[in-house]
Amino acid sequence: MAKEVLMPKLSSTMDQGHVTQWFKNVGDPVKVGDVVFEVMTDKIAIEVEAYDAGFLIGRYVEVGEVVPVNTVIAHIGKADETVEKPSKNQTKQVAVSQAVEPVAVEIPVISLETVRTLPEDGFGVRATPAARKAARERGITIEEVYANTHGLVRVQLKDVEGYRTPMKKAAYVETGVEKIIPWTGIRKLIADQMSKSHATVPSVTINAEVNVDMLLKLRAEVLEKVEKESGIRLSITHLLAYFVTKALRKHPTMNARALDDGIHVLPSVNLGIAVAMENGLIVPNVKNAQSYSLVELAKAIKTQTEKPKKNTLLPDDLSGGTFTITSLGTTAVIDFNPIINVPEICILGVGRIVDRVEFDANNALIKVKKLTMSLSFDHRAVDGYPAALFLSDLVYLIEHPLTLLVE
Asked: Which residues have CB under 8 Å from 361's CB, separation 6+?
């Protein structure tokens, strides 16, 4: 008897999804564990594997078509088997008893034994981890290799090993060939999220300069010891994240999410750290960040921010965030207006450290190192003065880090 393939529910907030790519055509054989299709959730793109073996005997959803979760989108059965095409958006009830987590979730007919985000190389081009590693080692991009494979679904290691870089001409010639990056996959997810934030959230950005001389001195004093004992090289981002959790403890209303039924002020700080990838921006978060010591938080941030690069992100890594930090400190940017990662109500932008000349208490000129922090906040959920108080207290903690010892 033919088995139904459903649009899976892959996160607690997902109520619909769309297929971004089919890996099997009607008539193709299917083994248990074969990747059948890729679905874009409200968080990430996930490859979905077959739970049953047979042949794909029906496929009812086109690439890009949005359907509710648990909609019948395909059938797997015997090669000569015929099935009645389901009515438009026909959905199935999935028993809660099938849940595999403490919180009840719906488990579809498709298994999710392998969960991956879009690849870090290229613009939505799929490749095996071995192929991506080999491409990086050879100094080429997956896109170059993909263009040479004549449209294969996935770039394999053998494709990279067999690729030969075209001979370059003596002088550069503009060919005038236009490259189109389609609004698909992670690029579409980012576009939709940013458009939603800009269109629905009255965002205000305030800036503050902070003297980081003490912060840099603190880092220098503990850097070697922390790295030797924990294997973590303490960064400015780690230190700023730690101070943010302390400031949020004093200003809990900043640690919130704006939802349809009101402003949800959360007891736990689920701290998001923006990670820039070649094909987009990913914001994994550290759950319960307020409960960690500085070294523990640094370890947790390192673990979470490495997941996008290793293609090991799970939906839970991206959900439930309450506050985000995004840094352009490695660039020439001094300050900027970060866009809020809705439904969070705040995001902190961090620019680069610059040298400034100021007057000290004795009216003498001194050189100091300054950092600009830009706090964007949802004016529906928080007013300017409370936001300014939060940013001011954060500045004070950074400039006087030893005050944390007497809390």
From this structure: none
What residue ranges of the chain have pLDDT lower than 70? 12, 42-43, 88-125, 129, 149-153, 165-176, 407
Q: What is the pLDDT of residue 340?
A: 95
Residues ≥6 apart with Cβ < 8 Å to 179:
none
Short-list 33, 108, 40, 118, CA closest to 74: 108
Global model pTM greater than 0.90: no
Pick the catalytic residue: 18, 379, 393, 400? 379
Angle at 283 between CA 134 and CA 14, to 5 degrees: 105
Residue 326, CB-side half-sphere exposure with 13 Å CA sphere? 21
For the chain, first and last CA: distance in Å? 66
Distance CA(186)–CA(37), nearest Å, equals 16
- Rg, C-alpha atoms of the chain: 25
Residue 42 among the catalytic residues: no
CA distances from 91 to 9, 17, 28 (A): 12, 13, 24
3-state SS assignment for residue 384: helix
- Which of these is catalytic: 355, 383, 393, 400? 383
Burial (CB count <10 Å: 0-12, 13-18, 19+), residue 181? exposed
In angstroms, the CA 32 to CA 352 distance is 50
Asked if 213 is an active-site residue, the reply is: no
